[in-house]
Design goal:
The protein is an alpha/beta fold. It is built from 15 helices and 8 strands. It has helices at residues 3-10, 12-29, 34-68, 75-103, 109-141, 144-164, 171-185, 201-220, 240-255, 275-287, 303-310, 335-349, 352-357, 368-380, 398-406, and strands spanning 188-193, 226-229, 264-267, 292-297, 316-320, 360-364, 389-393, 411-417. Strands 1-2-3-4-5-6-7-8 form an 8-stranded parallel beta barrel, surrounded by 7 helices. It has 2 domains: 3-160, Four Helix Bundle (Hemerythrin (Met), subunit A) (Up-down Bundle), CATH 1.20.120.520; 166-417, TIM Barrel (Alpha-Beta Barrel), CATH 3.20.20.220.
């Protein structure tokens, strides 16, 4: 088998992904059968996390740097392929986020199909570009031995990335993963027990107890007790008073951990109807002197006003691009407009007055261009690297996370756990899954 055929064989993983994701799109078109849809979603999520994401990261780590050094390969081609991989990672995160919401009972079939259709289109485009444009160039430029070496390196990196992207179900395993990440790369973690839109009091209590257990384990491991919670996972929709009491229990557990670390309970921001209740919950926790932060979505027009009161107090604000699109009355429309709104809000968060008031800005997005621009802005405004931080999903844009950390910035990985297994690229808050996660669209 010619060496480039080995590389083409690796792309069978992506071709299988196209077929599997396309099947999910068809299943979601059917009426009823939520159990079947959930099972199909689970198969796709596992494949995306175990195969697709590790392969894309391995290409970026092992294939494109080699191609970039070759005189016979057009540099714009390599840049385009890198951009394709980044766009694919972001789209995978959106599909994983949809799965987490679907699992939590939020069945947005139309939105899910839109993200799945886009993912299939991007996968096909990437397959065609690599096989029709890059591999023929490699055939001309490299010896069989060099090509086979690249093939083996992709296999090796893909395996490492698959292991690195796994988040076990239990709190102990999640804390162990957080400790490994800190010790090996200097990247901190934020633990998030998967779940949202919960009404069953027993499930709420399970979420609270598990989150408190994770908090205790983090403190015992010498790690910051930094946790993220969805208010709807604490029953906000059915019993706001009980939700407040549950959030207070978690926050008091966080406050009881050893001092000198960034111990914090971060409130995720969910759909528009929950903005006011979540802001109120944040105010109530702060009034009790508890370490609470709040997530804001740049997509929402109202966020410009919501941010104002937060800039003058010592709290943490996590800025995401945001999910839950509504319409032009409530949302900035289109990726460019959302990015522009994000930059404008972030600029206010990085004003010297906000620093003097004790604000801790947290910029949660996978948009590398935007993050690097904010890093430069923070430095120009006199912020020390440990006074603000960047947050991304565990296993997403690993290259960017490591780069920012090498350059001395504080980086935090949003680390979901629970519900039986892997949640590696589950988004946080808007794009971060669990939606997990409410990190927002990248």
């Amino acid at each position: 088998m010619p060496p480039t055929d080995h590389l083409r064989h690796l792309h069978d993983r992506l071709r299988s992904g196209v077929a599997l994701v396309s099947q999910l799109e068809e299943v979601l078109h059917e009426r009823g059968n939520p159990a079947g849809k959930l099972a199909a979603f689970a198969r796709v999520s596992d494949y995306l996390q175990d195969v697709i994401l590790p392969h894309l990261r391995a290409e970026r780590a092992a294939l494109y740097p080699e191609a970039e050094r070759l005189h016979g390969i057009d540099p714009p081609l390599v840049r385009r392929l890198n951009d394709n991989c980044e766009e694919l990672e972001q789209q995978v995160a959106r599909v994983l986020h949809d799965h987490a919401r679907f699992r939590g009972g939020v069945h947005d079939n139309v939105g899910c199909r839109r993200h799945i259709t886009a993912l299939v289109r991007l996968l096909r485009r990437h397959l065609q570009a690599v096989e029709d444009e890059l591999l023929p160039c490699l055939d001309r430029e490299l010896s069989d031995g060099d090509l086979y070496r690249i093939y083996e390196r992709i296999q090796e990196v893909s395996f490492d990335e698959e292991l690195a992207g796994r988040v076990p179900a239990g709190a102990e395993a999640a804390v162990a993963a957080a400790r490994r990440l800190r010790d090996s790369q200097g990247i901190d973690s934020e633990l998030f027990f998967l779940g949202e839109y919960v009404s069953d009091p027993q499930l709420v209590e399970r979420t609270v107890a598990t989150t408190i257990e994770a908090c205790r384990l983090l403190g015992s491991a010498g790690l910051a007790a930094h946790l993220s919670i969805d208010p709807t996972a604490l029953g906000l929709l059915t019993d706001p008073d009980a939700c407040r009491r549950s959030a207070e229990r978690i926050a008091r557990s966080v406050a009881a951990q050893p001092l000198g670390r960034l111990n914090l309970v971060m409130l995720d921001m969910e759909d528009l109807t929950l903005v006011e209740p979540t802001l109120r919950l944040h105010r109530e926790l702060l009034a009790l002197g508890l370490p609470a932060g709040i997530t804001l979505q740049a997509r929402l027009r109202r966020t410009a006003d919501d941010l104002g009161p937060l800039l003058g107090q010592p709290t943490a604000v996590r800025l995401v691009k945001g999910a839950f699109p509504l319409g032009p009355e409530h949302d900035h429309q289109g990726g460019r407009a959302v990015s522009a709104a994000y930059l404008a809000l972030a600029t206010r968060m990085l004003a010297p007055a906000a620093r003097e008031a004790g604000l801790r800005p947290i910029f949660a997005t996978h948009d590398g261009t935007l993050l690097l621009r904010l890093a430069a802005l923070a430095q120009s405004e006199g912020w020390a690297p440990d006074q603000f931080e960047f947050e991304m999903l565990l296993g997403v844009r690993v290259d960017l996370q490591r780069r920012l950390r090498r350059e001395g910035f504080s980086v935090r990985a949003h680390l979901p756990f629970g519900t039986g297994g892997q949640a590696s690229a589950l988004p946080a808050g808007g794009e971060h899954p669990a939606e997990a996660l409410h990190l927002g669209e990248a």
